[in-house]
Amino acid sequence: MQEILFLGAGNMARALVAGLVRQGWPPASITVCAPHAERREALAAAFGVHATPAQAHAITPGSTVILAVKPKNIAAVLAAWQGPFRHARPLLISVAAGIPVASLQRALGEALPVVRAMPNTPAQIGAGATALFASPEVNEEQRQGAAAILGAVGSIHWLEDENLMDIVTALSGSGPAYVLLFMEALEDAAVAQGLDRPSARALALQTVLGTARMAAETGQSPTSLRHQVTSPGGTTAAALAVWEEGLRSLAQRALAAAAQRSRTLAPNKD
Ligand SMILES: NC(=O)c1ccc[n+]([C@@H]2O[C@H](COP(=O)([O-])OP(=O)(O)OC[C@H]3O[C@@H](n4cnc5c(N)ncnc54)[C@H](OP(=O)(O)O)[C@@H]3O)[C@@H](O)[C@H]2O)c1
Predict the structure, then answer these.
(1) Count of C-beta atoms within a 10 Å radius of residue 239
(2) Other CB atoms within 10 A of residue 234 CB
(3) pLDDT digits (tens, 9 = 90+) for 64-111
(4) Model pLDDT for residues 7-28, shown as the tens digit of each residue
(5) Coil, helix or strand for 34?
(6) How far does residue 34's CA lie from ligand 1's centre (Å)?
């Protein structure tokens, strides 16, 4: 099993570590590096992985480094790790939103192999959705290594055009928050109409979960499944007429806003 070094011990590192260990990845092959002892030690205690302070760790040749720090910290973190990177030439997988391969390689001082990945937080229960883009320097073995790591925590989708990472970030990277907002809105609306909150929450949750599973397991399109449950003049049709007044244009605006934010995250974008 390849060795994995995480730079960063925040939300995304935790989601990936949790997902990997849950899927049977040996904890002893995973090391987490972050400056604050509290967060990295929490990951070590929870999952049995190694924890180390920033820059106190060597990189093993043939290993994979997962960059999971905030975009604003990337240049400084990679500059500090330039020596070990040049020596070991590991595969770098960056999960940072909006940071292009060229910026990462510039920060490393060399065109080392880089895979950009955009996972999402359901990765922590093995139900993530990750889009991947490989730089030309990534060889087939490294491509398969990246696929094995991200594939252990959910589905993976390779992109051939790096520019599409911004819209993928807007769709699936940020997407869990939209679905949660939708669940909150359904719950609040049902409570406003008199249902008790625990029942509203449980019914909203199972509706989203069951519908997603139905779409996944039948393989039918959302449009086709929706038509099957919408009788003309019925209750569903009454609600859909209201949703159609704004939902699609809101989705367009929301994803455009997220993609635009992703495009502006890189400090020295080409
Ligand atoms: N959250 C999501 O849903 C999501 C989805 C897709 C992609 N991402 C991407 O994942 C990345 C991390 O996001 P996050 O939500 O996990 O952020 P976060 O919770 O703020 O975690 C950032 C981590 O970076 C660490 N760090 C800062 N400076 C460091 C250094 N010099 N060396 C090593 N580690 C350092 C911090 O260390 P301390 O703990 O010691 O402070 C912290 O553990 C971002 O680039 C984001 O775009 C996030």
Answers:
(1) 11
(2) 11
(3) 999 999 999 999 999 899 999 999 999 999 999 999 999 999 999 999
(4) 999 999 999 999 999 889 999 9
(5) coil
(6) 9
Q: Would residue 109 be called left, alpha or beta, if left means φ above 0 and alpha means ψ between -120 and 50 degrees?
A: left
The SS3 of residue 130 is strand
Ligand 1 binding pocket includes 35 (Cβ within 6 Å): yes
- End-to-end CA separation in angstroms for the chain: 36
Name the CA radius of gyration of the chain, rounded. Answer: 21
Six-digit token string for 201: 């929450």
**Virtual torsion, Cα 200, 204, 205, 211, nearest 10 deg:** 160
Question: The pTM is what?
Answer: 0.90
Q: What is the identity of the amino acid at 159?
A: L
Q: Mind listing the domains of the chain with CATH numbers?
A: 4-165 (3.40.50.720), 175-263 (1.10.3730.10)
Ligand 1 lined by 34 (C-beta under 6 Å): yes
